[in-house]
Fold this sequence. Notes:
Oligomer: single chain
Number of helices: 3
Helix content: 40-55%
Order of helices and strands: HEHEH
Structural class: alpha+beta
Amino acid sequence: MLLGLIAPRPIYITSATEDPRADPRGEFATAVHAEPIYRIFGKRGVDVKEWPKPDTPIGKSIGHHVRTGPHAITAYDWEQFLNFADRRMK
């Protein structure tokens, strides 16, 4: 529900394959279930229903990736955050 309250603003969600406490699959499911609310505002969300492969950024107004590795914020994560910001906030 919290993700739906953020609509229609862009949001980026990420975690890591070796960080089960972050619940990567639950984060993805949350993004998928928030998409209908974004569509009410004419926005596209993650734009997929299938769990993406690790290290594969997805999404339009709701961005998402699961990075290979442990809990951390890495240079790869920052690159994806900035790419998302460039696409959404020109």
